[in-house]
Amino acid sequence: SATAAIGKGLAIAVVATIVIYLGVSSVALGVLGTDALSTSGAPLFDAGSRFLGRWNAPVIVFAAVAAIGTTINAIYLTFTRFLFAMGQDRVLPAALADIHPRWATPHVAILAVFCCSVAGLLLLPSSILFLFLAVNLPTMTKYFFNCLAAARLATGHPELLARARFRLKVGTVRAWAYAGMVSSVVLFAVGLTADWRPYGVLATWAVAGALY
Question: Of 35, 113, 160, 199, which has the highest C-beta tally within 10 A?
């Protein structure tokens, strides 16, 4: 069924992502070494220059444009739908739920996301480490609470778990959920030793959201 296919697709995508990231990281580390990798401002470009020669620049630029394009597309799909749903539920201003009469898109939410993206581009530092943490800290926060929700569902609502098409045992769900929560906390702690500024940005947003 479609529901089971989505669950299996998510699992396959996660495994594929892990394999690709480990492969890329291993190659970069093996080519540059730990010292050069830790000080590099563009590690993939520096690693590629060792074995791609004159093809390094066009290959890396093409890969970067493709990666950034797909990331921006995903951000727009998710960020705009979050704002749209919150506008529908009146958690945020109802105007965010407006649908364009011709294009049938949440145009107000899309414009809001565009403005936020431009503001981030102009105001945030260009440090790779800062931007990496700024992007991933909210993701780790989301994963932590997703895992917490999964653990609570498996413990408190086994009837919902029993109806799932892509179903795991209660103990398995809880084990993976707790492992995900621990991993998120560890990554949070490790990142804090590298650069505290993204944590300040996240805390500011958290306070603003709580006050709102």
Answer: 113
Instruction: Note the Cα 179 to chain centre separation in Å.
Output: 18
In DSSP notation, 137-155 reads HHHHHHHHHHHHHHHHHHH
Nearest CA to 180 out of 154, 201, 149, 207 is that of 149
Q: What is residue 52's three-state secondary structure? A: coil
Is residue 80 within 8 Å of residue 67, measured between CB atoms? Answer: no
Each residue's pLDDT tens digit, 33-62: 888 777 777 788 888 888 778 888 888 888
DSSP characters over 95-143:
GGG---TTT-S-HHHHHHHHHHHHHHHHHS---HHHHHHHHHHHHHHHH
Tokens at 166, concatenated: 């892509």
Any residues with CB less than 8 A from the CB of 58 and at least 6 apart, and which? none
Q: Rounded to an integer, what distance in angstroms lies between the CA atom of residue 19 and that of residue 24? A: 9
The Cα–Cα gap between 28 and 90 comes to: 47
What is the amino acid identity at position 112? A
Indicate the angle between helix axes 43-51 and 56-88, nearest 10 degrees. Answer: 150
Whether 96 contacts 106, CB under 8 Å: yes
Looking at residue 93, its amino acid is P
pTM metric for this prediction: 0.62
CA distance 165 to 27: 38
